[in-house]
Design a protein that fits this description.
By secondary structure, this protein is mainly α. It has six helices and no strands.
């Protein structure tokens, strides 16, 4: 009588790659959300400065004169400059923390499902700084991490990611146009037009930041829920 061979043990469904350790993204996610809130606040301040600039240049273009108009113009210029500085500081601080959060998310996503990722881990940071490919590589990395972090067996859509990335790219294009328009403005009419274009750019930045915040919150929660669901097997966890 032939003894049947024992059935082979099933392999883990989503083997973690070497050097990938599961760690909670919650703290970094919260810090990133707070900093995106700061970005939104500085953009709102910039919108206020844009409105003042557009208002006073419009009045001057319409023939307003006198000390009061000069004082308003001087105040508007100072606020305009302060808004640009505050936006720059908020953007740099947010970018640093956001990239730390995204790296944590990416490593966790490899632990969840290494097969989902089309890009090497190093592109998580490098993709943002390489010309041309930075127009779509970062979005692909976030989308792959989104898929790997979704509950197993579910169909995960990319609507929040696509909405955020679309507004981000549009915001970059409009922002560069607004900056060029502002730098080349010489007449009062040109200054008013530049202020209005900058207002539109800053408003786009607000919407983009809100959508980025939504992606951060949802992706962080997806990973936390996946860890707490008990679905993970043989997953290395950092101590």
């Amino acid at each position: 009588m032939t003894t049947p061979m024992p059935a082979p043990m099933p392999a883990p469904p989503y083997p973690a790659p070497p050097g990938a350790w599961l760690r909670s993204p919650t703290a970094l996610g919260r810090a990133t959300v707070v900093l995106f809130g700061l970005v939104i606040a500085t953009d709102l301040f910039a919108c206020y400065a844009d409105l003042l600039e557009a208002s006073v240049t419009g009045d001057i273009a319409d023939g307003a004169v006198g000390a009061a108009v000069i004082d308003r113009a001087d105040r508007a210029d100072k606020l305009y400059g302060a808004a640009g500085i505050s936006q720059g500081i908020a953007l740099v601080a947010t970018a640093v923390v956001y990239l730390c959060w995204l790296w944590r998310i990416r490593v966790n996503a490899e632990v969840f499902d290494a097969s989902r990722h089309r890009m090497k881990r190093g592109w998580t940071i490098g993709a943002w700084f390489c010309p041309v490919v930075n127009l779509w590589f970062p979005r692909r990395i976030v989308a792959d991490s989104w898929d790997a972090s979704a509950p197993w067996g579910s169909r995960s859509g990319h609507t929040p990611v696509n909405a955020w990335w679309t507004l981000w790219i549009v915001g970059i294009v409009v922002g560069r146009f607004a900056d060029t328009t502002s730098r080349h403005a010489e007449t009062v009419e040109e200054l008013r037009h530049a202020a209005n274009v900058m207002l539109f750019s800053d408003a786009l930045d607000i919407v983009s930041a809100v959508l980025a915040l939504v992606v951060v919150v949802r992706l962080t929660r997806m990973q936390e829920r996946k860890v707490l669901s008990g679905e993970l097997l043989q997953i290395p966890v950092a101590g």
